[in-house]
Give the backbone structure.
Amino acid sequence: MNNLNLRLVPIPNPTLLLHHRQQEWWWQILDPSSEIVNRWNRIFFLISLVALFVDPLFFYLLGFMPHRNCLTMDYGWAGFLVVTRTIVDLFSFLHILIKFRTAYINPNSRVFGRGDLVTNPTLIAFRYLKGNFAIDLAAALPLPQCVVWGVMPIARSRTSNHVNHAISLLIILQYIPRIIVIFPLNARIIKNTGVVAKTAWTGAAYNLILYLLASHVLGAVWYLMSVDRIFTCWKVHCRHERDEIHCRTIYLDCEAVGNDRDIWYNSTKVFQNCDGKNGDFNFGMFAPALHDQVASVNFIEKYFYCLWFGLKNLSSYGQSLEASTYAVETSFGILVCIMGLLFFSLLIGNVQTYLQSTTARLEEWRVKRRDTEEWMNHRQLPPNLQDRVRRFVQYNWLSTRGVKEEEILQALPLDLRREIQKHLCLDLVRRVPFFSKMDNILLDAICQRLVSSLNTKGTYIVREGDPVNEMFFIIRGQVESSTTDGGRSGFFNSITLKPGDFCGEELLTWALMSTSNQNRPASTRTVKCVTEVEAFALRADDLKFFASQFKRLHSKKLQHSFRYYSHQWRTWGACILQAAFRRHRRRRLAEELSRQEESMLFYMREEQDSKFAQKLVSVKQKATTFVNPVADSMPKMFKPDEPSF
């Protein structure tokens, strides 16, 4: 201890490491592929879709008051939409702040793999300001709120037409960056998670919502242009009117009140000339809004009417529209045709693709079943074989639904594939009594090599005398296992195998023998499925691999377990017990006859009766002839080959 030299080295900034560890969450740099960022991207994606839905609703605020025939603004719904728009804009500003604290991948480091993350806040901010910051800021600015709450209260002219034109212009200008924000956000979600919609039905609903959103925007724009077209007709006839009380444009707005406006309203013919019947003004595609008085109904009714109009014309590519020579109107008609063709081909095509993906495997199975039927008819298979083929195809579909498990597992990493096989097979393998005696390491190795096997009723898994290629472990169903001991006359043994039993134990004997060759052993039993059977199969090469790699298979404990649960050994043991019992019975009978003979001879010596002695000899001969057929009627059952444990 005296030679121990300790020296304290001062730290230039002792609180630096502690500061990094205790840094507040709002100052932390986020990983762009982390779970919290992916979740926020999905939330903001939904918020952006809501923003695209809310903005066109401002177009419905303008309308006509039916009993006064004047232009008015629905300030009640305007307040609700302004509050909703403010909440959406708050999410947009929060998204901007999150992007200032989200790292990015250095493009120069993407040589192999993902690349290096840049976590310097200065570099992150500089890159974001040079990139998408201007578009995100333009999409998040509360311009309609500023017009409603700031500009209009202090403006000299507060007519509904002026308010509507200001708000509509800002909505249209801001709608473009809001749409632009959607595309990189959608690409970022696909890059981090693979897909926007995780299920087929969700993907179909997502594309259908986009199609309805396009119809919603189209209907709102059509309504705004309809109101403007009707108001334009009013203004044109108002300028040409030469009555005692001249028409003033201010009279067309509901803000105008007074006796002059009432006198003019009672004597004017402006509204009669713009009713679409008496005048010469051509409303074109906006005539339905005038005839159905869409601009005079309440907010909910006009919205659904315009949504129906947009959906109808978008689906029919605008074929039902009748345009006038008005340039803006014809341009809008051309836009409707292009949008209808584009959105119907893209979005509805995606909906069809998503819905078809849910039944793709079913259609594939139907095609396969039809091909099987054609092949069986072409080959003229007998009806019983055709029924067996149909039952197997049907049972295979009901069990797997067309999913090829082996292909899915082979595409996964080795460690993940091992864990999945262990989860699927370990509990089922432990149901087999022979496997329950093994340790976990050997069971894990066996689970990796097991393959599922499906067999229908009446199928022969293996026949007596055929080479055994697999060892089957029954999970569900019943199997009949019978043997004739190589075709010996007078010998037949049959048992029923249930879940937990196994067959094909000759293969294990062959695998454990050190002198075994490449030829597979012959089966000593015929195995037939009594019901539909689900089993795990262990191939010959895999058993040979286990025998060479795992010395635990050579233990005496497994030897006794194998003999106890092997039906081949059970049959041999039963035959040995029967033969031993019959030998014991014959020996007991011989001993009993010997005792009777001795007693008879004893009485013969006493009575000197030779005739009785002859009778005794004849009885002994009859007993001997009775015993010999019993002993010879038991056929020999050869002992099974014992594995080299």
